[in-house]
Amino acid sequence: MDDIEATILKNRNIVSDYYLLKLRLSKPIGKVLPGQFVMLKVPGNEVFLRRPFSVYDHDKNSLTLMYRVVGKGTRVLSNIKKNERTLVLGPLGNAFNVKRADKHIVVAGGIGIAGVHTLIKKLGKKAHIFFGCNTREELPLIADILEFNPMVATLDGSIGFAGNVIELLQGRIEPMMGKDTMIYACGPDGMVKSLRKMLEKHRTPCQVLVEERMACGLGLCFGCVIRTTDDAEPYKRVCKEGPVFDLWKISL
Fold it and tell me: Is the entire prediction scored with pTM above 0.85?
């Protein structure tokens, strides 16, 4: 983990309120594992606290983040221009535990694709990808993983399966289930709850990247806790013990 000076290379609107931000780093960020995140200082003086973003992509001297405009911080960030300077703290948090498995199923809803993007790149064609969004207009979010043949669900039925991503998965998961099946997921709370309900019968191993507001990203402020099934210490920090958790060890 290090605080690294960075320069904005591009801040491109992909579609609707979704953006792709690429940064040139003043020094290498080090080893980044799938599911880890960074705390980004939004350039300027309008936003005091840093904002957490999953690492979407990276190499030795650059870092790419995908984000959706949902509040003041991301709204200000969406207007930042090329060559602006900032600071990036990371990599932070616990990553996905990618074990040997017969089947790797990756489930993402909307901006949740940002949290599993590096995981998909790592798994490559071993990944069975299920992506859910509102409409076909949001397909650019998965443009660079189309080679892995993701299955798509749209709520308006404009392309792929008509419905949500868990309904899509439910209709196709049975042949993929086995003793060594691993599921990885990132998306809104409703998606995660539906996924858990669907898997309840067999309690299939599943790791979830939890999305939560963060203040420090270092586990110091306890502002991002979630309740777990650990009786001795039920509240865990998303930034420190997470953001990736065992689905069966968190309270939903």
Answer: yes
